[in-house]
Automatic annotation (TrEMBL):
The lineage of its organism: Bacteria, Pseudomonadati, Pseudomonadota, Betaproteobacteria, Burkholderiales. It comes from the Bacteria. It comes from Pseudoduganella rivuli. Residues 74-141 form the Cupin type-2 domain. PANTHER family: CUPIN TYPE-2 DOMAIN-CONTAINING PROTEIN, SLR2101 PROTEIN. It holds the Pfam family Cupin_2. This is Cupin domain-containing protein.
Length: 160
């Protein structure tokens, strides 16, 4: 199963020319007893982002989300794994890069996703279930959002 990615970050030199600022491998961190590996590729502290900030966004302390900012994360789901049901205070763009898995919503629906599929997760309570015998790799971009309102009630985030 994948546990690393190559990350290339660009920037500018003193003459305002575009340069490759860094080119390195990032290792994943296993979560929930080894059901998935998370690689935090980059974060921003604000949105809109500040491209003048030279801080390595992968080193910023965050939870799943970054209040006021964004998070780019690669997740490798182990075969047979099932995440906890969770909701974040963010809008999440999930792109299946390799493999297949099922998105289950607390309302009871289950949607099968395969490589190339994109999910726009809008503050819904959901879980990920890899029912296959192969790993599934997804890229997630999480953008901080206002709490979602449903039925006149603000729905709180819930995740560990």
């Amino acid at each position: 199963m994948h546990t690393t990615i190559r990350r290339i970050v660009t920037g500018h030199d003193a003459a305002s020319n575009a340069i490759v600022h860094s080119d390195n491998e990032l290792a994943g961190q296993w979560v929930d007893g080894g059901i998935a590996s998370f690689i935090k590729v980059w974060t921003t502290a604000t949105s809109p982002a500040d491209n003048n900030d030279d801080f390595d966004g992968a080193l910023r302390a965050t939870g799943l989300t970054c209040p006021g900012g964004t998070v780019l994360r690669i997740v490798d789901f182990a075969p047979g794994c099932k995440s906890p049901m969770h909701r974040t205070r963010s809008i999440d763009y999930g792109i299946v890069l390799e493999g297949e898995l099922t998105m289950e919503l607390d309302g009871g629906s289950a949607t099968r996703l395969k490589a190339g599929d994109v999910v726009v997760q809008r503050g819904t309570n959901h879980l990920w279930h890899n029912t296959s015998d192969r790993p599934c790799r997804m890229a997630f971009v999480l953008v901080d959002a206002k709490p979602v309102q449903a039925g006149g009630v603000a729905l709180e985030q819930n995740y560990d």
